Amino acid sequence: MITLGIDCGTQSLKTVALDGDSGKIVASASKPYDLIEGLPTGHAEQDPQIWWDALRETVTKVLSDLGSRKSEVGGIGVSGQQHGFVPLDANHEVIRPAKLWCDTSTTRQCDEIRAKLGGREKTIALAGNDILPGFTAPKILWLKQNEPENFAKLAHVALPHDFLNLKLTGSLRMEFGDASGTALMDVRNRTWCREICDAIDTRLTDMLPPLGSSLEPAGTLRAELAATWGLPTNVIVSSGGGDNMMAAIGTGNTRSGTVTASLGTSGTIFACADKPVIDPHGEIAAFCDSADHWMPLLCTMNVTIATEAFRKLFGWDHAKMDSEISTIPAGSDGLLFLPYLQGERTPNLPQGCGVLHGMTTANITPAHIARAAMEGVTLGMAYGLRRMESLGLKPSEIRLTGGGSQSPAWRQILADVFGYPVVTMESAEGAALGAAIQALHAASPGSSLGDLAERCSPVKSGTRLEPKRADFYSGLLEKQNSLRDKTMSHH
Question: Is there a contact between 428 and 401 (Cβ–Cβ < 8 Å)?
């Protein structure tokens, strides 16, 4: 059987075709798109229609590449950028553009909801998570307060991947993984939290889709789409999930103790756990995964966004950037970068900014700055990894995925900064591959998701790197933490 995995990100949508027998990706296509331009600082929005257009375009391309084999397609899975608020009216039509995960315009709404619930501790006691600007909950209150005429039309709350599932199947539901990123769900019991919903609006509970297991399919592909695409009439659409939940499946992270680090625009580190892992400070998100386990997760908003900004500034390609960084010693001769170019989520600095600290005539070179940027964003992720360790999570190794994992120089920095061996995956398509594996599981009754994930997402042999400078970098992390506390306190 062949399954399609679709990954709807902030910058592009990608579709891959997975051959379930060989475990190999046999076709892929992607379509880039942009955020809506000209919005005030802190606002980040996209029109959901561009995702649907990109999905149809890339699926058509992949199916044409499959040729006669497209009759073997038995399942489709969708991975979506998390937390995006897609407001739908009673006819399932989009009311206004979606507010995205990277929209930080809702700090005031977070404070209001938290205050209504009796403070941060009370909020975490109710849901397992704090209310943060990235999450969906404050975006709904923002709509109510800023666009009452649109809020009056609101009948259904969807996340990006739910919206695409709705277009594919005609029905709307939410699975536990992505739903846990709304901050409206009690992650311990996997139910909608009435108190939090009521704190936003007493009608909100009725606008939320039914919640269900991530192992149950979302439905079957709509007949008219099957006809348009020339697919069989019984193609299963799996539950799908958030991009991090799908990247977990796509890196074989479906059993307790495995840890994945994903290096995209933003950075995430997440583990698989058999029971909820709740951070009393609310820094580590207590999510569910999309395989009916739990998935403690740390998110930093500034990873490749920072390294790419400097790479473009210096006019380098990726290979040149790697070779330049390799000429500079660990610690960049005293140059230290605070990577908060677009605010930050962990640590929570919505008004934060980037800082290059310790500049001297010796280290003010492009190569030093590039290395400092790479070290700075990695230390930013390590801050959260140390927090995870304090909650009892100890990885044996860390599986790398995402664009940043393609850089050899960066992989060694990751091992050194994290202080654990790192490995890369055979496929770099973490989330899209995970969505295809989940679809394979949904369309193959009696199969084990863990076994399918292990077979279709193997670790690349010979990529294991051991930490060499762990002590040095743990000192540098302390330095970054103290510099952050000194410089960001007024923000």
Answer: yes
**90 CB-contact burial (10 Å; exposed 0-12 / middle 13-18 / buried 19+):** exposed
The residues, any chain, with a CB within 8 Å of residue 375's CB and separated by 6 or more, are 330, 331, 332, 336, 337, 413, 417, 473, 476
The band of 156, judged by pLDDT with boundaries at 50, 70 and 90, is very high
| CB of 136 closer than 8 Å to CB of 159 | yes
Strand partners, 355: 338
Phi, psi of 44 (to 5 degrees): -140, 115
Q: Measure the CA–CA gap between 382 and 103, rounded to whole angstroms.
A: 23
CA-CA distance, 136 to 451, in Å (whole number)?
33
Distance CA 474, CA 377 (A): 14
What are 206's two structure tokens?
Answer: 């009725």
446-473 pLDDT, tens digit per residue, is 999 999 999 999 999 999 999 999 999 9
Non-local CB neighbours of 161 within 8 Å, separated by 6+ positions: 8, 78, 79, 80, 178, 240, 241, 242
- How many Cβ atoms from other residues are within 10 Å of residue 284's Cβ? 26
Radius of gyration of the chain (CA): 22
What domains appear along the chain, each with residue ranges and CATH number? 2-242 (3.30.420.40), 252-424+461-491 (3.30.420.40)
What pTM did the predictor assign? 0.89
470-487 helix and 366-390 helix, angle to the nearest 10 degrees: 90
What tokens does 18 get?
A: 């997975």
Beta strands per DSSP E along 168-301 = 174-175, 185-186, 191-192, 211-212, 219-220, 236-237, 241-242, 259-263, 267-271, 285-288, 294-300
Helix (H, G, I), strand (E, B) or coil at 295: strand
Active site residue 243: yes
- 199-213 b/e (C-beta count within 10 Å ≥ 16 → b): bbbeebeebbbeebe
**Mean pLDDT over residues 374-398, rounded?**
93
Among residues 429, 342, 338, 411, the alpha carbon closest in space to that of 376 is found at 338
The active-site residue out of 7, 103, 130, 243 is 243
